[in-house]
Amino acid sequence: MFSLDQRLREDSYVIGRFPLSLLLLSRDANYPWCILVPERENTYELYHLSEEDQQQLIGESSRLAEVMDSVFDADKMNIATLGNVVPQLHLHHIARYKDDPAWPAPIWGAVPARAYEPEPLKSRVEKLMNALAGEDFTPLNDASELVSSAAPRPKIDC
């Protein structure tokens, strides 16, 4: 049975679900940063997925990246699977800007994670949910509910 890794649960908000993957929003407010987690147990690498699931994940990732690029007017979309700290397969989608705190380097370790303030969190989640609305995406939390759980968390390393 699928279970979301504890570190991912602690470092993100569950936003919604695609047919294959959970959609998470990182608690680090420094960047628009989403994470897709395929709901398959014991999956640590892309090649652990069936060919059908691999294609589904690529489609979900492409849709999310396109939405994030449009909604957040990114200079560049970074998409990565690392798994050095959290082995469960997860794909980071990070909207990057030429003036962000880590540009042009990777975000990991560049600056301390910054917790969301309630209104920016609500706004970011609502923008994502509105842009993703459709038959292949199901919101799982209301933006207002997430604001009530916006407690600061430790530095994020995935």
From TrEMBL:
Gene3D superfamilies: HIT-like. InterPro entries: HIT-like, HIT-like_sf, HIT_Hint. This is HIT domain-containing protein. It comes from Gilvimarinus algae. Residues 1-103 form the HIT domain. Pfam families: HIT (PF01230).
